[in-house]
Design brief:
By secondary structure, the chain is mostly beta strands. The strands form 5 sheets. Strands 2, 4, 6, 9, 13 and 19 form a 6-stranded mixed β-sheet that branches. A 4-stranded antiparallel β-sheet has the order 10-18-14-16, with no helix packed on it. The longest helix is centred in the N-terminal third of the chain and has 22 residues. The protein folds into 2 domains: 121 residues, Immunoglobulin-like (Sandwich); 136 residues. The chain is elongated, with a radius of gyration of 27 Å. The chain is built from 1 helix and 19 strands.
Length: 307
Amino acid sequence: MVRTKEVMLVFLLGIIFLSACSTQKNTSGVTGAYANCNGDETQMVTATFADFAPVSSETNPYQAGDDIDVEVVLTNKFSDDIDTGKARVRLTGDAAITSIFSGAQEKNAEKLFGIDSETCLEETTEVDVGPIVYQGEITTKVNKEITGLYCYEEPVVVKAYLYYTARAEEIGTNLPSGSNPASSVQVTQIEQNPVDIDQGEANGEMRFKIYLENVGTGIIVPSLNECFEYRDAGYREEFTIDVKGAYDIDCPDDVKLSRGDKTDVITCLVTGVDSTNLGAQASEISITLSGFAYEDVIPSTTIWLEP
């Protein structure tokens, strides 16, 4: 009797195992194109005020009338260089009001060199936006917050995968970790259907959805020349999208993010899929996001002044 129960248990376990195998989704071993360095990070360029410009403390303040050097350090976390003139910096708040501080400048940056794709080593570029001079009257020691904005323009190329198969269980990972370069504008998800082929047809078609989002803290603006402008609450962030792959892919040209969560979803159609060449193999697609600049805030710094 015991032996019979053991045989039945093995039989049932075998059925469960086969059932699991038959419904298991393809977990293809694809790797994100940028997984090695900064893939999926939420900033392509970071900015900070230089440690030495400005530099002061409560015990070592600037004197009234001193030239106060101000430099912003930009770091490109992307693998490609960002050309000279494609990044811009300006001061804001009191530092940009001439009756409080004079001398503030809006400056374009020199070339921002990309990271080394093997070592992930990053280079920095300094932008001099001063010196500034405090114009107010000082009767006692005071501190002032220095604030600023930066803006840059560089297309974002996302590498993802589609699976030209008529079987849902053969669809693998469309967007592996590291598919996005370091960027505040990202593809966050891709969902695809199996290839649809009518009986007797040589070619089929397939639909997929691309989910897009501004995952950063800044704002998407139309171009570098339109950075640092006032925008009201009704402003919608927009950019263009272009998708290339093994077959013809038709997607909307423009993306318009929602005002609240800054997301959008577009549906694309792949046509001309060869019905005799289907399978679970991953096929790379390139998703290019362009036609925009990205404006963000420089973390503030504080200076001290005395009469």
